[in-house]
Amino acid sequence: MITVSKEHFVLSEDPMSSFFSRFMSKTTEKKPVKLTPAQAQQKMTNEPVTIIDVRRPDEFAEGHIPGAVNLPNETISHSALAALPDEDAVLLVYCRSGHRSAQAVAKLVRLGYKQVYDFGGLLQWPYEITKEDQA
């Protein structure tokens, strides 16, 4: 039998609360913020943002929001993040209908981005759309 006296066993904090706080901080993610097209347009007009189109390149070429960066949802990972600004940048994410943008926003939040907004899809976008190759 091993005996440990209180003098030799000192904890700076409750071990269970320390464990749970570390566990929760790693696994609990911030809930993504959903914007309406009008709210997204207002952010684009009033502050520096990066607009991310998460559709395939062929879809992007057919028409996209001016100034958008094409970063297909399936490529979002640690290796694809060189295309994105720092973790504190405001990222506005969209796709065609809103399904892929929701997936992409969740990935970006997990990767550490702090200001990620999902404004759905181009189907609901009433503002300007441009084509990649305008002749």
TrEMBL record:
Domain Rhodanese: 45-131
Species this chain originates from: Holdemania filiformis
GO molecular function annotation: thiosulfate-cyanide sulfurtransferase activity
SMART domains per record: RHOD
Designated name of the protein: Rhodanese-like domain-containing protein
